[in-house]
Design a protein that fits this description.
The structure is a single chain. By secondary structure, the protein is mainly alpha-helical. The chain contains 6 helices and no strands.
């Protein structure tokens, strides 16, 4: 296999964006959780004799993470552009790859798993847009919330795929595809 420059650039930008999206979700669920941080704000402010309500603490905690959440949206927009570019590459890329019919059963399964993950990413992009633009689309907040619940559930696929992909590359690199990682960097034939 030999990967084209466009494919390699797409791959590494895509990896960066996916990791950025994962990082923003991780931060949202841990260090920047409004539930945890609103309690911290309530307690710490009470220690210095400043009383605020739970709803005020919630507003403050959400304000603390607002900048990070803007990054999630920027990464989401970038993901949409990268997905569109990947679809373009499916038809126009000059990478030298084996024919699907010449692949081993294992490599066919890996190849098909990429279609599954691309489908998942397309769903995540579309559902993310619907969540973000629900008012402009004329949807109820409850509908947007339901879509958000599905969006967060489907996110699990990506969360598991990323480490499996990395582990798979490490295994392939150490077994039958030596030079796989470096070929994705420099583009030379495997």
């Amino acid at each position: 296999m030999k990967y084209s420059l466009y494919f390699r650039i797409w791959h590494w930008l895509h990896a960066f964006i996916i990791l950025g999206l994962l990082a923003t979700v991780f931060l949202r669920k841990t260090f920047l959780s409004w539930r945890t941080n609103s309690e911290i704000l309530l307690n710490k402010l009470a220690e210095i004799d400043i009383e605020i309500t739970a709803s005020q603490a919630k507003v403050l905690a959400k304000a603390v993470r607002a900048g990070m959440w803007e990054w999630h949206i920027i990464f989401g927009y970038t993901l949409v552009v990268l997905i569109a570019f990947r679809i373009y590459l499916m038809f126009k890329d000059t990478s030298n790859r084996e024919s699907f019919f010449d692949l081993t059963l294992h490599k066919k399964a890996v190849f098909l798993s990429y279609f599954f993950i691309y489908g998942t990413l397309i769903f995540m992009s579309i559902s993310g847009f619907i969540i973000y633009f629900y008012q402009a689309l004329g949807l109820l907040k409850t509908t947007a919330h339901d879509i958000k619940e599905i969006h967060e559930l489907v996110f699990q696929v990506i969360m598991y795929f990323v480490p499996l992909h990395i582990i798979g590359v490490i295994i392939a690199e150490n077994r039958d595809e030596k030079g796989l990682t470096s070929s994705m960097l420099h583009g030379k034939e495997l």
